[in-house]
Amino acid sequence: MKNHKLSIIYLIILIIFTVYVVLDTFVFSSVYTVTQNKNTKKINSGDVTLTDNSYSDDNIEINIKEYRENDTTIYVADVVLKDNSLLKTAFANNSYGKNITAKTSSISESVKAILSVNGDYYGVQEKGYVLKNGNIYRNTSSGNEDLVIYKDGSFEIVNEDDVSLESLVSKGAYNVLSFGPALIIDGDISISKNEEVGKAMASNPRTAIGKISDNHYVFVVSDGRTSDSEGLSLYELASFMKSLGCDIAYNLDGGGSSTMYFNGKVINNTVGGRGESERSVSDIVYIGY
Fold first, then answer.
1. CA 105, CA 118: separation in Å to the nearest integer?
2. Helix, strand, coil % (nearest 5) of the chain?
3. pTM for this structure?
4. Where are the domains of the chain?
5. Phi, psi (5° rounding) for residue 201?
6. Cα-Cα-Cα-Cα dihedral of 64, 69, 71, 75, to 10°?
7. pLDDT average, residue stretch 118-138
């Protein structure tokens, strides 16, 4: 009888501990740092020309196009910048922390983004580089393949185990996106169908960012998991980014997170319908002043 009671007590303690770990990982939130952007400068936009699918001023030109491939609707924002500092990232609630999240559209509105997509969702990982707008928030390696965005607007793919975040910053790194994998490196597809495993092989909503040439970028979001759009595999996404002419391209958080925001509204069909069921995320990549 005594052993039976001890077993029950042990089981109760185990359940309580397990519930706490799950809640601490996915629910309980903690703010570690309020965002402070470095090298902030005022830039005059000049005259603005805006339509439903385009934006232009003295420093930014954005054109939105819709494609249909692999039974999937894909949204592409073609972006040309005269000032690379207008390519930025932003945290949910302007805060770095644990389980700090908000909808992509809400974060975008808070920073007055012209165009944005969901970012790398750093908040679901306890390791992995977090460098946002010149500020180091986490420098512990997860061994991940990252996209480094430098102050001059150039892109580089690195492995966290091969280089410290501090050394990247010393070279001019301004933002690091830690999700992956890399899709295009030096103009060539960097993944193969055989390398995809698990959910990566499935057709899903996807988000990616790519560089075509100096100051010329593309933001890409595909629909998926709907009756109208099957979604893309990672290889299909990489092939599409190559068809756009990307010299380098990188996969960001996808699935329910995949969201493209432009001119004050969500333009893709999120998993539950256009803008109706945005997943809250920890960060965005955006174009804005």
1. 9
2. 25, 40, 35
3. 0.87
4. 33-287
5. -80, -20
6. -20
7. 95
